[in-house]
Amino acid sequence: MAAHALADVYRGLKEVGLTKGQVRAILPDWWDPEVATTDSGLWETAILLGRRLSLEAEALIEGRVQPCESISRPRFKHTARVSPDQLRPAAMIASGLAKAILGSIPVAESHGRISVKSVRAELLKTPNRRIDFDAILDFAWNIGIPVIPLPYLPKGIRKMDAAAIKVGSRPAIILALRTNSKAWISFLLAHELGHICLGHIPENGALFEGSLTDTSEFDAQSQMDQQERSANEFALELLGGHEVERQIAQWGHAMPAIELAAKASELASALKTAPGHLVLRHAFMTHAWPEARIALKFLTDDLDAQPALVNRMTREIDMQSISDDLRDYLEQITGLVAEG
Fold first, then answer.
1. Which domain holds residue 325?
2. Within 10 Å of residue 22's Cβ, how many Cβ atoms?
3. What is the pLDDT of residues 75-116, one digit of tens each?
């Protein structure tokens, strides 16, 4: 052990894009480089980092980055502007987070593949229910898929929009896009749920989405391209399907934001979806994004997605099953506030 030092750990993590400052931000507040000057302290440092980044501690001490077996098959959907190397530090943090959260909730029954029609039928069983952010969030947690917000990464780390992860055979969804719009988050959530329900994520696998809104120059394998199309189709059908497109096509292209918000509010109930989703669907069809962004601000039920994600996770997980140092870390990067 004496042959190894903290410099070896830094060297290994630098190769995957983490600076010393970012490594320090990942470690607990009480940690100091002096801790790692002894063999036991170096081990403790490597274990702390390993748990936070889903990496093998022994390899870290030797200056190597080796994913834990529980999440060892990551894939990246990226664009010309976002590379896998840029996403890798955030992916390691997301993997460690998913592992910790899944360890704090009961193991759910394995459901296998689930069709979008089955999900819609389940969500619409309740009278007057619509398929929106709250309904999809409820569905995911109720079948044992935690939905984990990741808004606060260390400074300089490039975030993905979202991710679908399996720790062993247990799935989790990560939502890192920092927006309070429930319409935007509901599409991300439905898309990642689609990847899981359609069987795109193998055991110990993960798919990290660099951007779900940037459609230019996807650099991915053809199989992944097809999976992305399938996940998009799943999300769009879940949130309203072809009838939404048919109705919106009658609206025309040019429309003031206030009129767009009013039309969406009027039609949403009949289509059993949220007005915000209709606004976004209109923008995707017409590219009238400035009007859509303003229209969303007129919709009071489109607000506060991030607090809703955090509040739901706070209710669902058993914080006492998570060690104190890791609990502080979860609070720091998710915005979670521990009770008591």
1. 69-239+304-334
2. 18
3. 888 665 678 888 999 999 999 999 999 999 999 887 789 999
Contacts of 44 (CB under 8 A, 6+ apart): 35, 36
Distances (CA, A) of 33 to 9, 21, 125, 318: 12, 12, 56, 31
Residue 229: inside a domain, yes or no? yes
* Number of CB atoms found within 10 A of residue 330's CB: 22
Residue 1 lies in a domain: no
Backbone torsions φ then ψ of 170, nearest 5 degrees: -95, 120
232-284 tens-digit pLDDT: 999 999 999 889 999 999 998 889 999 999 999 999 999 999 999 999 999 98
As a whole number of angstroms, the distance between CA 61 and CA 45 comes to: 9
Q: Which two tokens stand for residue 70?
A: 């529980």
What does the alpha-carbon distance between residue 284 and residue 292 come to, in Å, rounded to a whole number? 10
For residue 270, how many C-alpha atoms fall within 13 Å in the half-sphere facing its CB? 9
Where a domain ends, among 61, 83, 102? 61
pLDDT tens digits for range 313-329: 999 998 888 888 788 88
Cα 316 to Cα 327: distance, rounded to the nearest angstrom: 15
Q: How far is CA 123 from the centre of its chain?
A: 21
Q: For the chain, how many structural domains are there in total?
A: 3
Instruction: Return d(Cα 172, Cα 330) in angstroms, integer.
Output: 15
Question: What is the pTM for the complete model shown?
Answer: 0.92
> Which residues is 209 bridged to in the sheet?
77, 162
CB of 99 within 8 A of CB of 313?
no
